[in-house]
């Protein structure tokens, strides 16, 4: 039987995972950060951070290294004291100045970047470790259920060192969901996986998270990953939330140019507003609410905002570079009157080559306008 047929008969799941719909269901918790500040040594890691999640929601924390993502997880779990503000779970204060409820009293499941497995314990014992409050038989039953969902019930007596990287990731996931926590915290859970595994593991992990119905906070530095997983995305910058919203809101309506740059490369044209529009070599773009003479940046993403106009209309340009990857051409086009090249992406076309003269046009509804800093 072919791989495709196997996947079809099992509901399009990875053959190494257990059947979908079998993860235990949790009572989802609500999380609130109220003006939370946190210092690590002399560094102000979080600064008056505010956000809240609805029960069962997946919130992705996105940002550069050092922006405060992992500190939010540690503070939520009770592993990091805060200096001011309050952290609440289901309206109950978990952390405040001088108050820290212990991690094991918060109803939280943790999945660390390095998996943090116990090498001296069997796979079953690793999962049972977080079920000590249950009786021995009930703990074993619940652990085996979690292992079955991730396809490792047949390896229960093996040890973590006998597992591949992808299997260790699944073991860490099983251990985090086995206690049926109301809140799951995942710290870059896919960063150690190679590209070949990452896509399938992410898809199945998302299915497991949805099945548990737990509220999830997932830390990542990958915008695509955040958009795949998150009901909401919070982009952190220098210890504060730069913007929070759905993937559509944060991608299509970025608060500032730095938010737009984080989600994709953009071609930028500095210009001036006149009569409510920003003038560019490609034509006028609406700049609502800005006075005449205001300095703005017109930003264009390589997909959707700018394209080669095969009809011969548009603004003349010359292709100066081309990179073909997985059936997609990334082109850089020099246009008179613009200091930097314009970047665009399109399906591979063997007739497009460096040195070719083309006409470039824009979709004004996909062009972004920001106040110049």
Automatic annotation (TrEMBL):
<dbReference type="GO" id="GO:0005524">
    <property type="term" value="F:ATP binding"/>
</dbReference>
<keyword id="KW-1003">Cell membrane</keyword>
<dbReference type="GO" id="GO:0015697">
    <property type="term" value="P:quaternary ammonium group transport"/>
</dbReference>
<keyword id="KW-0410">Iron transport</keyword>
<dbReference type="InterPro" id="IPR017871">
    <property type="entry name" value="ABC_transporter-like_CS"/>
</dbReference>
<comment type="similarity">
    <text>Belongs to the ABC transporter superfamily.</text>
</comment>
<dbReference type="GO" id="GO:0016887">
    <property type="term" value="F:ATP hydrolysis activity"/>
</dbReference>
<dbReference type="InterPro" id="IPR003439">
    <property type="entry name" value="ABC_transporter-like_ATP-bd"/>
</dbReference>
<feature type="domain" description="ABC transporter">
    <location>
        <begin position="31"/>
        <end position="263"/>
    </location>
</feature>
<dbReference type="InterPro" id="IPR008995">
    <property type="entry name" value="Mo/tungstate-bd_C_term_dom"/>
</dbReference>
<keyword id="KW-0406">Ion transport</keyword>
<dbReference type="InterPro" id="IPR015853">
    <property type="entry name" value="ABC_transpr_FbpC"/>
</dbReference>
<dbReference type="GO" id="GO:0016020">
    <property type="term" value="C:membrane"/>
</dbReference>
<dbReference type="InterPro" id="IPR003593">
    <property type="entry name" value="AAA+_ATPase"/>
</dbReference>
<dbReference type="InterPro" id="IPR027417">
    <property type="entry name" value="P-loop_NTPase"/>
</dbReference>
<keyword id="KW-0067">ATP-binding</keyword>
<keyword id="KW-0472">Membrane</keyword>
<dbReference type="GO" id="GO:0015408">
    <property type="term" value="F:ABC-type ferric iron transporter activity"/>
</dbReference>
<protein>
    <submittedName>
        <fullName>Iron(III) transport system ATP-binding protein</fullName>
    </submittedName>
</protein>
<keyword id="KW-0813">Transport</keyword>
<dbReference type="Pfam" id="PF00005">
    <property type="entry name" value="ABC_tran"/>
</dbReference>
<keyword id="KW-0547">Nucleotide-binding</keyword>
<dbReference type="InterPro" id="IPR050093">
    <property type="entry name" value="ABC_SmlMolc_Importer"/>
</dbReference>
<keyword id="KW-0408">Iron</keyword>
């Amino acid at each position: 039987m072919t791989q495709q047929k196997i996947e079809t008969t099992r509901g399009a799941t990875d053959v190494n995972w257990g059947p979908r719909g079998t993860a235990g269901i949790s009572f989802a918790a609500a999380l609130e950060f109220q003006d939370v500040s946190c210092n690590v040594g002399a560094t102000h890691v979080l600064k008056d951070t505010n956000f809240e999640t609805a029960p069962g929601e997946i919130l992705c924390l996105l940002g550069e290294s050092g922006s405060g993502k992992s500190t939010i997880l540690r503070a939520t779990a009770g592993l990091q004291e805060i200096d001011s503000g309050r952290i609440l779970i289901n309206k109950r204060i978990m952390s405040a100045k001088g108050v820290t409820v212990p991690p094991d009293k918060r109803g939280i499941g943790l999945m660390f970047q390095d998996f943090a497995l116990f090498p001296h314990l069997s796979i079953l014992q690793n999962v049972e470790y977080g079920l000590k409050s249950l009786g021995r038989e009930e703990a074993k039953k619940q652990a085996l259920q979690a292992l079955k969902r991730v396809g490792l019930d047949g390896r229960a007596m093996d040890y973590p060192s006998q597992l591949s990287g992808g299997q260790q990731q699944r073991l860490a996931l099983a251990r985090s969901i086995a206690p049926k926590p109301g809140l799951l915290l995942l710290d870059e859970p896919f960063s150690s996986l190679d590209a070949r595994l990452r896509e399938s593991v992410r898809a199945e992990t998302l299915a497991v998270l949805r099945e548990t119905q737990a509220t999830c906070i997932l830390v990542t530095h990958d915008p695509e990953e955040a958009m795949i997983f998150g009901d909401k995305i919070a982009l952190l910058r220098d210890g504060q939330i730069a913007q929070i919203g759905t993937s559509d809101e944060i991608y299509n309506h970025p608060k500032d140019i730095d938010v737009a740059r984080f989600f994709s490369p953009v071609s930028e044209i500095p210009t001036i507003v006149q009569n409510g529009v920003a003038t560019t070599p490609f034509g006028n773009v609406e700049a609502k609410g800005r006075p005449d003479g205001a300095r703005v940046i017109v930003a264009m993403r390589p997909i959707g905002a700018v394209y080669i106009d095969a009809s011969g209309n548009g603004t003349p340009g010359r292709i100066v570079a081309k990179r073909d990857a997985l059936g997609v051409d990334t082109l850089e086009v020099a246009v008179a009157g613009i200091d930097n090249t314009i970047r665009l992406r399109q399906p591979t076309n063997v007739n497009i080559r460096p040195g070719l003269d083309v006409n470039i046009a824009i979709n004004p509804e996909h062009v972004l306008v920001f106040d110049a800093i």
